[in-house]
Amino acid sequence: MTIQEIKKAYNRIIGSLDARELKNAFDSLQSLIAGSREYFFQDKVLELQETYKYMLRYRGEGAKDPMQEQIYKNLLISAYEITDNIKNRLLTVDSPSNYYSHRRIQQSRPDVSFEQLYTDLYTSYDIGNEVQYETTLAQLFNKIWTSDTFTTQDTASVKKVLDDDILPDTAGSQVVSALLLGLQFTFDKEKMKLLFDAASLSNEEIRIRALICLLVILYLYQNRTPLYKDIENRLDLLAEKPGFTNDVRTIILRFILARETEKITRRLQDEIIPEMMKLSPKISRKINLNEINPEQLGDEMNPEWQDLISDSSLGKKMEEFSELQQEGADVIHSTFIHLKSFPFFREISNWFLPFTSDHSIFSNAFRQGSHEKQMLDSMAGAGFMCNSDKYSLYFSMMQLPEQHRKMMMGQFDSQASEMLQQSQEELITKRGKFEIIAGQYIQDLYRFYKLYPSHLDFEDIFSLPLDFHNLKLVSPYLSDEESLTTIAEYYLRKNYFQDALVIYNHLAKTNKEEEVLFQKIGYCKQMLGDIKGALAAYLHADLLNSKSKWVIRKIAGCYRTLKMPEEALTYYHRYEQLNPDNLSVQISIGHCHLELKEYNEALKYYFKVDYLDNKSNKAWRPIAWCSFLTGKYDQAKNYYNKILENNPNMQDYLNAGHTEWALQNLKEAIHYYTQAIQSASGDFYKFQDQFTQDIPDLIVAGIEEAEVPLMLDQLRYSLENSL
Questions:
Q1: pLDDT for 612-665, tens place per residue?
Q2: Contact 275, 313 (CB under 8 A)
Q3: Which candidate, 168, 239, 193, 255, places its Cα nearest to that of 438?
Q4: Cα–Cα distance, 687 to 676 (Å, whole number)
């Protein structure tokens, strides 16, 4: 079988097991065994099938078996495990993927037990051999990641690393990340137990990372983990710790925020940086760099320069990005995209390594007590940058010529260090230590799954919804109204309307009298294009509070979108009573009358808007068109003349032509029609499509139907002559 055939068969079997279609799974397993000639598993599959048939036969006879549920779960568990074992056995032979390549490398080397690796790790750290410690830690990472399912002894040995308080937190942190990668490829209950152990530790760095990894694995195996009662029990035990619900809630919000990273990166590359480049010459002219005498420079900046930025759209975007950064969004991802090619990042474990100034890569270039050492220690504590980026920043600095590097680092004095320390303290006060560590680790994960050279060999967890609050095992701990509302509000604020709607609909089942809840349901549905659903929710909210102007206007807007202007008018008039000076609503009322062909009534409202808002021209077009439809051609002409002097579009020229034709000014009509075609980039068919839609109105205006094709042909000839 080819690698693709193996993967396809594996996915088909897992899909059947997830759907609890056990017979289909057994049939597909038999086919996979026959196709791959892995007859080692044949007897076990046949045994499972016989047990399943016996269970079904016993059930069909109406017998009550208290063990039936557990037998069924055990069958599913065994089927999952056999499927995983066959896949790994087949793909380890010659799959080119990163994971199986590392498995082959591990298998080709002399086997070193987890117990021995722990001993080596402890010894190298105890004697201060940093290089040996890091080498052993990388070995441990790779062995955990690529190992088969753990034995009881394996679990006990790795647990020693987690429980060792003498080892630095880099050890436990790397164990946790290795468990995540290993579990992502093959489910292992023993590795899950280790994650639970790590998530119960007092060490914050390890505990928070483990909790994040646990949630990811529970999500990836959401159809499998509920089969294990001990996993459910361990989760119950973990949930008893103070702050568990709040911690999980914080992680969920951080993953939602991670969705914004690609948007932020695109905006930086497509909007911010190009605008900065465009603004740069203007600033240079304001500053007049060529005429500046350094001796005459004061310490004050010209406020005009700041105004130049503040008054531009760039200033508003920069302010928005500053707010995102304060919130914890990953606004610097784009800066480090191209700084992950250093040799350090060839070792997969280094993508997850907590930043430490004690790493051996710093030993040659940095001395104890130097400015460089001081800067590294400050970087280690900086909460606004993830660990991976801190290493990237260091390697980037090392690319500078030595003289420039020393000059830059020499300027990093104690005052700068104190400023960084103060910034870190403010960050901890604002967000809390848990959120900072969680945010950094999630950003480290993001960089690995997006930027690691072989990242395509890994399922990108950030391409998944990761709605942990909907997981069967996790949802009981987030079922309180505060948690669900907090998550839904965050989804809503970030414009993830479908995710927010799921939660709001759930909350609405027990909160049928909460008007704001139905307002938000309506808004989410409206933004998702479900106008009828939105209208129903808004109407329910209106029943609960008939004085909400926002809801009344939304209802009116939905009716208009659904081509129900008469119903829309009812609600616009209700809004008008509450806020008679809102010109936007006045013009909407005019539009409703226009759609109802009540042109004279529409004109009343359009003229009212034009009178009260004489600085704007937004009522001109509807006034002109209604004037045309009511036979007030001179009035229509007057308004179209004003419109054509203010950035006219194709429709304006077309309507002006109609007006001139109705006034029997054929020459002017042809002139405006020609300009309409030109404004459509010479696309006659686009013009003709719009023109044809207006033929009924032209006939009402007194144009003979027989004249229409003549006018169109005359325009065709006119266009030919102009070429």
A1: 887 778 899 999 999 999 999 999 999 999 999 988 999 999 999 999 999 999
A2: yes
A3: 255
A4: 7
| Residue-wise pLDDT tens digits, 583-626 | 999 999 999 999 999 999 999 999 999 988 877 788 999 999 99
The beta-carbon contacts of 192-199 under 8 Å, at least 24 apart in sequence, are 192/217, 192/225, 192/228, 192/231, 192/234, 193/155, 193/230, 193/234, 194/150, 194/155, 194/158, 194/159, 194/162, 196/234, 196/235, 196/237, 196/238, 197/159, 197/162, 197/163, 198/162, 198/172, 199/238
Please name the helix (run of DSSP H) or strand (run of DSSP E) that holds residue 360, with its range, or none: none
**Which residue shows structure tokens 């390594």?**
353
Question: Which two structure tokens, joined as six digits, stand for 499?
Answer: 């995710």
Give the integer Cα–Cα distance in Å for 200 and 437.
16
Tokens of 267: 């905006």
CA distance 51 to 59: 12
* 362, 394 Cβ separation under 8 angstroms: yes
Confidence label for 211 from pLDDT (cuts 50, 70 and 90): very high
Tokens standing for residue 199: 């998530």
Q: What is the mean pLDDT of the chain?
A: 88
Kindly state the DSSP code that residue 383 receives in the 8-state scheme. Answer: T
DSSP characters for 235-279?
HHHHHTSTTHHHHHHHHHHHHHHHTHHHHHHHHIIIIIHHHHHHH
Q: What is the pTM of this model?
A: 0.84
- pLDDT exceeds 70 at position 277: no
717, HSE (Cβ side, Cα atoms, 13 Å): 7
* pLDDT higher than 70, residue 329: yes
Q: What is the pLDDT of residue 297?
A: 41
* Residue 595: count of CB within 10 angstroms of its CB: 16
Closest CA to 78 of 185, 274, 227: 227
Structure-token match 């023993």, residue found: 190
